[in-house]
Amino acid sequence: MKYGARNALVGKVTEVKRGTVMGQVKLQVPARSMMESVMTLDSIDGLKLKKGDRVRVVVKAIHVLLVKE
Question: pTM score > 0.85 for this model?
Fold first, then answer.
């Protein structure tokens, strides 16, 4: 997958919280730092995100995007 953002880290999903429409995905990235991404449940389900998954964390402007490879 190609994308225009230059800031990307590899992280591990530590928690997925589901709401009625949106969800919150917590991640551990290098240096034991934590990041979070809020996305639609459709996106969480489409990526099949679950605790323990390894994902690429793509940061562009104010958006934090997750890419599962």
Answer: no
Distance CA 46, CA 4 (A): 21
> Which sign does the torsion angle of CA 8, 36, 40, 45 carry?
positive
CA distances for 59 relative to 9, 19, 63, 67, angstroms:
8, 23, 6, 11
Q: Are 22 and 38 in contact (CB under 8 A)?
A: yes
Tens of pLDDT along the chain (69 residues) come to: 777 777 788 999 999 999 999 999 999 998 878 999 999 999 999 999 999 999 999 887 777 778 898
